[in-house]
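job 3f2a | input accepted
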Amino acid sequence: MPHILLADDDMNFATILKKELEEESHQVDHVSNGVDAILKCIANPYDCVLLDLVMPGVDGLNALKIIKSLKPEIPVITISGKASTKEISESLSCGAHSCLKKPFSMEDLKKEIQTFRKERKK
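job 3f2a | predicted structure (122 res):
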């Protein structure tokens, strides 16, 4: 069962996404800020991190940089509803696997997760 960390401060969105992913047989931990995302990544072996770019405190971009410096093997998909094109671009250059714009379809997310799972098996 793939273990996913979801870091997003929008509780409604996070609750729905967590439920959808759990119905797809994923184990999902949720945090609402960048600091907690970093701490969870240090403490747990995640198969994937879904990281909102715009969060209070440590934003997703800075959390991404720290996570990738500590655990470069963890695939990170950034998600954004409010981030600028520059922030999205920067997330990709900092090691994000991809960036999905909110609202995105579950099909798009599932494709992204399957893509890096196949890559990791090689």
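job 3f2a | DSSP finds five helices and five strands in the chain.
job 3f2a | closed
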